[in-house]
Design goal:
This protein is mostly helical. Helices cover 79% and strands 0% of the residues. The model has no long low-confidence stretch (mean pLDDT 94).
């Protein structure tokens, strides 16, 4: 899917410099950033879900420990 991405001038310059440092394109840097974000937030969502489940499971004990 094609899309437009509007960056501030400072973001564009930083992205251009990073791409040059890595010897790759700005497009490739952005794709990696999106993949990293999606991976990180998926993990965080799993952790939050597990925490909620464990809080419910151990609610009585947690209440007694207060």
């Amino acid at each position: 899917m094609a899309m437009n991405l509007r960056l501030r001038d400072d973001q564009t310059e930083a992205l251009k410099l990073r791409a040059e440092e890595e010897g790759t394109s700005m497009h490739a840097v952005l794709l990696k950033a999106v993949d990293d974000y999606l991976s990180r937030t998926a993990h965080e969502a799993l952790v939050r879900k597990a925490a909620r489940e464990q809080t419910v499971k151990w609610a009585e004990l947690l209440e007694r420990l207060k």
